[in-house]
Structures are given as structure tokens and as C-alpha cells.
Design brief:
about 375 residues; alpha/beta; 4-stranded mixed β-sheet; 13 strands; globular
Length: about 375
């Protein structure tokens, strides 16, 4: 097996992991996920899928409607990371906070924090995935926390997981960091090994939850320069190179087998949220200075990750619900932090285009609030 060159980015990734779980603004993992901005995206990722049963509303087909009564909380929510606090960081416009997703054939109820907590009384809901799932977790906590009295809420940490507790409801809203779902470990000579058939080190945090919401997509398609691993491993076989979608299918299959074997559908709901789109095309528009959603698409493109995911879910015994947010979010080129991913002084704002732009995560309040309104309706 040829010895690859040592990658200095590994030190950066270790720093990100340490910061992520110590409550700093860099805990959001933006340094890693920002590398998506340098990849060549040929088109906006989006998909429109249909529910097979007419008894269910198709949440994916709809439009964004301006609603001045939004947002449902403000940017002073104490649980927001600096990286998504766009108003505090100097973003001059605020209309991106006031759009509500409206399906064509039905409506999604406005999020009601007390009703949500009543539904989740004495329950654990856990969101599992990457920094965009952390983005969604912060949104959900901010949607809920305003109705919980001071002193009756707290955040606790357990390894790679954190939890917001509404004490009077005995409810916890948790986040578990597992961007690949399967295990990424150090091997000989400090090489990073992605074990496509190992998952228990991550999955041990998921046991006992009443609702599990998963996502995993973006880390599988990082360019080779910013890849989080040096080798793939399956059983005793080691691979330097593998088609990313084949690796993704293998990793998801390991996750699916664990769910089928370890989770009781009579006790636990499992939802898999589809991939969040990126608006970072190099030769087209980016998210910088975008102020309004797109009204429609001139073409459609189904991300490969979603095709693989649907096939893995189809083979499972466990009834996993696919929450498809890709299409609705692909319309929201205006919702990303862009250069307002950190606090900027007045002089810096005059030259804001000189700074790196995050077109992957989402400003809060913002788009993930609509994901959570959909999630609440599903529950």
C-alpha cells in the first residue's frame, strides 16, 4: 500500500472538533464545511419527490410566501452560534427571516412551542449529523426555549452529544455529531481511516431516543484536497480510492442495518432529512448579496446522494420517513450567512466581498425554522 503524503489539514480538523464541543463560535465546524465553497458545483442541487399515498400531503411541492409575522424568535436567542447570527454579524437586510414555506396542496402549521413540548413530554428527540444538522438543532432549540422559564432549562454535554433540557416537560432536544454516521478513526502513522462497516462508537449515543432525525451527505463529497480521511476500510480490506457514491452507499447500509437491528419502531420514530443544498457555483450567482428567494427553477437535478439514500431506505425493514427539504431549500439562495459568518467591523463591511463566503449553512432565524415546522407537523 503506497504511503500518501501527510495532510496538514488534519491538524485543522482536530482543532475544529475541539472547538465544536467547547461552546465557541468555531464549534459550528464552518472551517471544515467551508471547503465546499471551493468545489465546482455544476448546478443547484434540488429534487422534487412525491409521496406515494394520497393520504399524505406532499410537503416538497410548494412555494415561499412572504409573512411579516415571522420570524418566530429573534437573533438574541442565547443558543445561536456566532457563525449563523447574521444580524449580529452585520448583515444589513432582514427579509430573509420572513419567508414561510407553503405546500401547494396543504399547509404546515405555524410552530407552537407549547404544543411541541406537550407532544414531546418525557421524550428525547435527537438530531444526528453534521454542522448543518447542528444548524437545525439550534433552530429547534430557539423555537422552543422562549416558553421555558429561566432556571427551568439547561444544556448538558456528553462526549460528542449535547442536549437542551426543558425541565418541567422532562423533554430533551439533543444533537449528536456524526457527519459520516460511520466511524472515522486514526490508524497507523496517524492516518485517518474511514471504517465503512463500523458504527457503534457513534450509535451508542442514539440509543433510548424517542425520535431520531439523521442527515449525512456533504462530508462524503468533499474534494480530495479537503477529504477527512486518508483511506477507506471495509472488513480487513483497505482502499486508497473509492467512488464517493459507492462509499456513501456502503456507509448508509451500515447505518440501515444498525437501525433495523437495534431500534424498535413501536417506541422510536426515525426520520432521515435529505441533503441541504449549496449555492456556491463558481461561474454563476452565489449567495453573496442575494436578497430574495428564487420563484422557480429552469431545470431540475436530483443529487446522487438522494438517489443512493432512497435506495438504501427502500431496502430497510424499519419504516424510516424521508424528510425531503432539498427542493424548498434550493430556492433560498438568500438564506446563507455569506460573508456575515462572523462579526465584522464597520471598515470590514466596506470591503466585505474580500472575505470568504459561507453559502452552505443558514442564517438563523431562517430556513431551518421551516424544516422544523415541517418536522413538528410530521410528529
Amino acid at each position: 500500500m503506497a504511503k500518501p503524503a501527510y495532510k496538514p489539514q488534519f491538524l485543522l480538523l482536530i482543532g475544529i472538533f475541539l472547538c465544536f464541543f467547547t461552546g465557541k463560535s468555531s464549534q459550528f465546524g464552518l472551517e471544515t464545511d467551508e471547503f465546499w465553497l471551493n468545489e465546482e458545483d455544476s448546478e443547484v442541487n434540488m429534487v422534487q419527490s412525491r409521496r406515494d399515498s394520497s393520504r399524505h400531503c406532499d410537503f416538497t411541492s410548494g412555494k415561499w410566501v412572504y409573512d411579516p409575522s415571522y420570524p418566530l424568535y429573534d437573533s438574541n436567542c442565547p443558543y445561536l452560534s456566532t457563525a449563523v447570527s447574521c444580524q449580529k454579524n452585520g448583515r444589513p437586510d432582514s427579509d430573509y427571516q420572513k419567508w414561510k414555506w407553503k405546500p401547494h396542496a396543504c399547509s404546515i402549521p405555524r410552530f407552537d412551542a407549547l404544543k411541541f413540548l406537550a407532544k414531546m413530554r418525557r421524550k428525547r428527540i435527537m438530531l444526528v449529523g453534521d454542522s448543518i444538522m447542528r444548524n437545525q438543532w439550534e433552530s429547534l432549540v430557539c423555537l422552543v426555549q422562549g416558553v421555558v422559564p429561566m432556571g427551568r432549562k439547561k444544556v448538558t454535554y456528553n462526549g460528542l452529544s449535547m442536549a437542551f433540557h426543558a425541565l418541567d416537560f422532562e423533554t430533551s432536544i439533543e444533537f449528536s455529531w456524526a457527519p459520516l454516521l460511520v466511524e472515522l478513526k486514526k490508524g497507523p502513522e496517524n492516518k485517518r481511516i474511514l471504517h465503512l462497516d463500523l458504527i457503534e462508537d457513534n450509535a451508542r449515543y442514539w440509543r433510548g431516543a424517542d425520535v431520531l432525525v439523521f442527515d449525512s451527505a456533504h462530508w462524503w463529497t468533499h474534494s480530495e484536497q479537503w477529504s477527512s480521511w486518508d483511506y477507506y476500510m471495509e472488513g480487513k480490506s483497505v482502499y486508497k480510492v473509492m467512488n464517493p457514491m459507492i462509499a456513501y452507499e456502503k456507509g448508509l447500509t451500515t447505518w440501515a442495518k444498525w437501525i433495523d437491528l437495534n431500534i424498535d419502531p413501536r417506541r422510536t420514530r426515525v426520520i432521515f432529512r435529505s441533503m441541504s443544498p449549496r449555492h456556491n457555483r463558481e461561474n454563476g450567482w452565489k449567495c453573496y448579496k442575494q436578497r430574495t428567494p428564487l420563484a422557480f427553477f429552469s431545470h431540475q437535478h436530483v443529487p446522487e446522494q438522494l438517489v443512493v439514500l432512497k435506495e438504501v431506505l427502500r431496502r430497510m425493514r424499519f419504516p424510516v420517513y424521508l424528510q425531503d427539504i432539498t427542493t424548498m431549500s434550493a430556492l433560498r439562495r438568500d438564506g446563507h450567512p455569506s460573508v456575515y459568518r462572523r462579526a465584522m467591523g464597520q471598515e470590514e463591511r466596506q470591503h466585505s466581498k474580500d472575505f470568504s463566503s459561507d453559502c452552505s449553512h443558514w442564517c438563523l432565524p431562517g430556513v431551518p425554522d421551516s424544516w422544523n415546522e415541517m418536522l413538528s407537523a410530521l410528529l
